[in-house]
């Protein structure tokens, strides 16, 4: 299979990830200044409503527009490159086993941190009522979505009854993954000139998608500035201060998993230096932080896996494409922390057995969560309903959800790449994945 020369991540001047960081800081500072000068003024509201929000949404739409063709072509080609069904089975089971184990560790870290810090006991009751009343409309939509979710439905919907419907529904993206797996298996089982031509056509679709993504991603610094301006201009410091314990709990748990568990996992299970791993992954991690969507970040994740981490394509395309829909370490961790936080706020004591049930639900919920901004909120509402907690309480955390969404998506993507490194090493594919000696030694 030919290898496309993708647009470089860096253009002349500063690298892309540095530009993204500058956009983040600039947008945040300007947003805080705008909030301090009057968050509800017509001018500030007009800038958010007619400039920053549409600009950020257009950027996301450009990425989402290509996610479906990219996801389908990458996974079909990844399966086809494995060459036989036995290899697919081994790769699939490794991916599933490692994903479940490390996602379970992430949720466990979250549950331990929320029991140690107990952020729900530090909430001002007046702030609770204010947050819930100000977000009443959003809460209704989220609760309605959560009531439509059932744990068994998450599993049943993996097999789509309508591929076109699954393609337009973000909650059914796993259906597209399953369909692509079936097409890939069909390609392996049906070697013929016609199927080879179809495979070449899919390679062309993959290369076109990656080329366009490489062009669109250059807009990321401006989009990040727009996102951060809107977030900081509307929230300021007051709401963030009121939810500080919750934010600290989530961020600390995410940091422990990202900078302690994953580096150890990559080093001892994947045979790669953590420094090499993070240096090669930083562009994808920053893009995930900017877009708050592991699905939208998939094109960048695929490119850094092949070009920076030098992972074998037939492994990275399979693991990362499945991971964008099903390997959500950060999301599962966030769901667990949020559910226990809401239980603390409303005085609902959960014994250890029920907390373990929450852990299991979060692992399943992380798999079934749509890889889009705020995709975990309906799942949290569903879990709240299962344990007897009023799902409307989710309105408390909506004020800081955008920021935490960016943080947990960064962990999702880092976890995807770490899983790809480990699966590559454990599949005997490390020869192609190894970096040059000068970098590996670092």
TrEMBL record:
Entry membrane topology: Multi-pass membrane protein
Record's keyword annotation contains RNA-binding: no
Keyword Hydrolase: no
Residues that span the membrane, as ranges: 20-38, 58-83, 95-117, 174-194, 215-237, 243-266, 356-373, 379-400
Principal subcellular localisation of the protein: membrane
Keywords associated with the record: Cell membrane, Membrane, Transmembrane, Transmembrane helix, Transport
Pfam families listed in its UniProt record: SDF
Places the protein is found: Cell membrane
Record protein name field: DAACS family dicarboxylate/amino acid:cation (Na+ or H+) symporter
């Amino acid at each position: 299979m030919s290898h496309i020369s993708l647009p470089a991540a860096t253009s002349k001047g500063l690298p892309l990830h540095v530009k993204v960081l500058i956009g983040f800081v600039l947008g945040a500072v300007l947003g805080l200044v705008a909030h301090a000068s009057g968050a509800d003024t017509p001018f500030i509201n007009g800038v958010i409503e007619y400039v920053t929000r549409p600009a950020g949404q257009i950027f996301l739409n450009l990425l989402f527009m290509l996610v479906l063709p990219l996801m389908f072509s990458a996974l079909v080609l990844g399966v086809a490159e494995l060459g036989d069904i036995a290899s697919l089975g081994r790769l699939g089971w490794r991916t599933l086993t490692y994903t479940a184990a490390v996602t379970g560790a992430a949720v466990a870290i979250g549950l331990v941190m929320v029991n140690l810090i107990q952020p729900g006991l530090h909430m001002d009751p007046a702030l609770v009522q204010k947050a819930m009343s100000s977000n009443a409309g959003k809460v209704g939509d989220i609760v309605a979505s959560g009531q439509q979710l059932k744990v068994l439905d998450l599993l049943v919907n993996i097999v789509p009854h309508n591929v076109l419907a699954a393609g337009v529904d973000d909650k059914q993206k796993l259906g597209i993954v399953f369909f692509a797996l079936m097409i890939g298996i069909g390609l392996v089982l049906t070697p013929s000139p016609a199927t080879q031509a179809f495979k070449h056509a899919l390679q062309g679709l993959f290369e076109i998608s990656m080329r366009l993504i490489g062009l669109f991603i250059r807009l990321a610094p401006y989009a990040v500035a727009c996102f951060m301006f809107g977030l900081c201009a509307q929230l300021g410091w007051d709401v963030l201060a009121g939810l500080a314990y919750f934010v600290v709990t989530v961020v600390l748990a995410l940091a422990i998993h990202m900078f302690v568990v994953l580096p150890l996992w990559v080093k001892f299970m994947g045979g790669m230096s953590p420094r090499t791993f993070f240096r090669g992954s930083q562009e994808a991690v920053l893009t995930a932080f900017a877009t708050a969507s592991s699905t939208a970040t998939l094109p960048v994740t695929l490119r850094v896996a092949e070009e920076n981490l030098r992972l074998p394509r037939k492994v990275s395309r399979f693991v990362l494409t499945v991971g964008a829909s099903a390997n959500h370490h950060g999301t599962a961790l966030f769901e667990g922390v949020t559910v226990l936080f809401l239980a603390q706020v409303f005085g609902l004591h959960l014994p250890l057995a029920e907390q373990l049930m929450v852990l299991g639900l979060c692992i399943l919920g992380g798999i079934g969560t749509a890889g889009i901004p705020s995709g975990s909120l309906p799942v949290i509402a569903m879990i709240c309903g299962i344990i007897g907690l009023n799902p409307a309480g989710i309105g408390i955390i909506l004020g800081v959800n955008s920021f935490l969404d960016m943080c947990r998506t960064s962990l999702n993507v880092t976890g995807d790449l770490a899983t790809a490194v480990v699966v590559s090493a454990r599949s005997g594919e490390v020869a192609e994945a190894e970096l040059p000696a000068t970098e590996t030694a670092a």
